[in-house]
Amino acid sequence: MTSASAIRRGGLSSLLVFDRRLGSSYVLPFTLITLFSAILIFLLFVHMAINNLKSRTRTVAGHNLEATPWHPFNLDDRHLDASASRILRCSYLSCLRRSPPSKISQHSSPAPACPAFFRSIHRDLEPWRRSRISRSVLAEARKYAAMRVVILGGNRLYVDLYYSCVQSRAMFTVWGLLQLLRRYPGMVPDVDLFFDCMDRPAINRTEYDLAGTGKPPPPLFRYCTTKDHFDIPFPDWSFWGCYKIYAEGFAWSVSLKYIISCGSVSLIIDPQYEEFLSRGLIASENYLPINISNLCPSIMSAVDWGNNHPSMAEAIGIKGQQLMEDLSMDRVYDYMFHLIMEYSKLLDFKPAPPPSALEVCMNTVLCLADEKQRELLEKSSSSPSSTTACTLPTLEGYND
Ligand SMILES: *[C@@H]1O[C@H](CO)[C@@H](O)[C@H](O)[C@H]1NC(C)=O
Ligand SMILES: *[C@@H]1O[C@H](CO)[C@@H](O)[C@H](O)[C@H]1NC(C)=O
């Protein structure tokens, strides 16, 4: 208004004389509008970028992940808090302020011997003992895996997530690995491994036979295996979650360890699915086997036998309980430690996290957990061990 009347009063010459004043009075609102629009566009852009990042950020709680195609399940059960700021804060900011590395403890007491069945680590890794594991052999495991875990420097853990795991298995499994790093600070070797969190073993011994394919099978970790599979068994999530969350009987049931620890005689139906601890089970010594093709008569004869031999039945029950006592959490960490250590020796390349992997630390998991999960996670956190890991039995003398 002012500048417009100034032009009218002064004509062209004034316009030229006062062009600086005129210019600034016209440009100021124009500049403000431009600046405002630019800020608006910038904010819109940031908003879109944040939403885009949020919708691409996969988390151990299961955000932005589909169920495993080989075992579909209902994703609606997960009750995921979808707030963008929480997902981004937990995923990208929670490892920035890491707690100082725990002091490597003095290891005053001598290491105990591991339970004898830890030898099965050698058997489980046997397919790669001669060939070792190349990048390309490892990459084959990708199509069976829900996630990839890379550990570096004994204190950094990176996770690349491909599929959601049923319930909170991924969260508790990653938590277990983080606790292992805490328990043995700086001692866990660099490693790169693929993991499936569903029950059914996938690496069929017939199909991945070295003689047939000319190369070793893809190494894939999961909670159980069978004699017909090359899947590598790893302690399951419930050691950290410790609540009985999954016993649908689809393949293998997590409840075995709870049943055996009760001290009564366990009647175990053809333990076809082997989790890492079931290798310690010896028929008629710490449990009574039940023949699945002959179920009812088999159970009845076992019960009859128990009733007629009460002291022997009791001894079997006690031995089962001892097996579970041997298998304290210390031994569970030791099993993980030795399995990862022996596996890492087989890698013929230097592990590095893929570009799509994100670092996960204890804060990340706690940040993503709901209230109940956080309580369980905190209860199951470890502290540095005062001893080195138990001594792994050698391959020699291993005749299973
Ligand atoms: C493994 O594959 C072979 C050949 O395809 C098949 O006959 C066998 O049933 C499979 N075994 C298991 C345990 O799935
Ligand atoms: C289980 O029962 C079936 C049918 O009676 C029999 O053929 C088989 O040999 C039994 N298996 C064992 C391990 O006893």
Automatic annotation (TrEMBL):
InterPro entries: CAP10 (IPR006598), O-Glucosyltr/Glycosyltrsf_90 (IPR051091). It comes from the Eukaryota. Coiled coil: none annotated. Signal peptide: none annotated. Keywords: Membrane, Transferase, Transmembrane, Transmembrane helix. One of its GO terms (molecular function) is transferase activity. The chain crosses the membrane at residues 26-50. This is Glycosyl transferase CAP10 domain-containing protein. Belongs to the glycosyltransferase 90 family. The keyword Magnesium does not apply. Pfam families: Glyco_transf_90 (PF05686). The lineage of its organism: Eukaryota, Viridiplantae, Streptophyta, Embryophyta, Tracheophyta. Residues 377-400 are annotated as: Disordered. Residues 187-350 form the Glycosyl transferase CAP10 domain.
